[in-house]
Design a protein that fits this description.
alpha/beta; 14 strands; 7-stranded mixed sheet
Length: 280
């Protein structure tokens, strides 16, 4: 498969398509929700999506913004929504104005500033919530939440007839629960795990692990705002996610090598939980 085509990965009913390679490219889409986390250089699999959640402004994560806007304009698509750190909005707007000057064309776009804990609805039952991450520049991660109705806890055990009777009396018998199903980080230090309680409870956690062996130390990873596998392994017991998907691995590791390292280093009780995202 060519780089521009990306790779697919799925778990349960959640499907992902994309690429993530440290310093080179990161853009992981959830096509069924018409969203992508980051945009890399603006690959073809991104061009029909509507929502783009930018973790931070480094080129390997955000360089494709102007190109995506250009392609959408050329194909008469509506202006997409780019959600990005507040500090990135003005510089990106300036970049687009320069491209308009270069091309002699005016673009329509929505650059939406993000702050921690902001919520962005995708449909009636799904929204995305931002959480702070720790990198060398302002950065955020994003969690996809689903809203489901369930019978109130205090009514559990009642018969169907009793519940129907309560409804007829005008009593609300259901409550809405907010379930974190996917959390995604861009570049970040390990502290993001403790920034918000729902992150570790997400059904799927896609997180950076740039370095995975002793060729780079924890200190070196932290100096550049990254996470080392040596920091993740002790925290596996704290993460309630059904799947932990490692992204942003360094290009110093070949596909074969990184799989071998992970299989040897992840404790046996977590082998079924931890995976490497296949698209690099």
């Amino acid at each position: 498969m060519s780089v521009q085509a990306g790779e697919s990965w799925s778990y349960d009913r959640y499907k992902f398509h994309g690429l993530s390679l440290s310093g080179i490219r990161t853009a992981v889409a959830m096509p069924e929700l018409s969203l992508s986390f980051d945009v890399a250089q603006g690959y073809p699999y991104l061009l029909t999506l509507k929502h783009f959640f930018i973790t931070h402004g480094h080129l390997d994560h955000a360089a494709g913004i102007p190109y995506i806007l250009s392609q959408k304009a050329m194909t008469s698509q509506p202006a997409p929504n780019f959600y990005m750190p507040k500090s990135l909005v003005e510089p990106m707007d300036q970049i687009m104005k320069l491209w308009e000057k270069i091309e002699g064309h005016q673009y329509t776009y929505n650059f939406i500033p993000v702050e921690a804990d902001m919520e962005f609805p995708l449909n009636q039952n799904v929204y995305v919530k931002a959480f702070p991450t720790t990198h060398r520049i302002e950065s955020f991660g994003y969690t996809v939440f689903e809203m489901h109705k369930k019978l109130k806890a205090e009514l559990q055990g009642l018969s169907e007839k009793e519940i129907v009777d309560l409804r007829r009396k005008g009593q609300e018998v259901n409550e809405v629960v907010h379930i974190p199903v996917v959390s995604f980080t861009g570049d970040t230090q390990i502290e993001f795990l403790d920034s918000r309680p729902w992150i570790r409870k997400s059904k799927i956690l896609m997180m950076e692990s740039t370095y995975i062996d002793n060729r780079k130390t924890i200190e070196s990873a932290r100096q550049w705002g990254h996470t080392h596998l040596d920091e993740i392994i002790p925290r596996l017991k704290d993460i309630e996610s059904e799947k932990i998907v490692l992204i942003h691995l360094s290009s110093r590791y070949s596909d074969t090598e990184m799989k071998k390292i992970i299989s040897h280093r992840i404790p046996v009780e977590y082998q079924d939980k931890v995976e490497i995202f296949p698209g690099r």
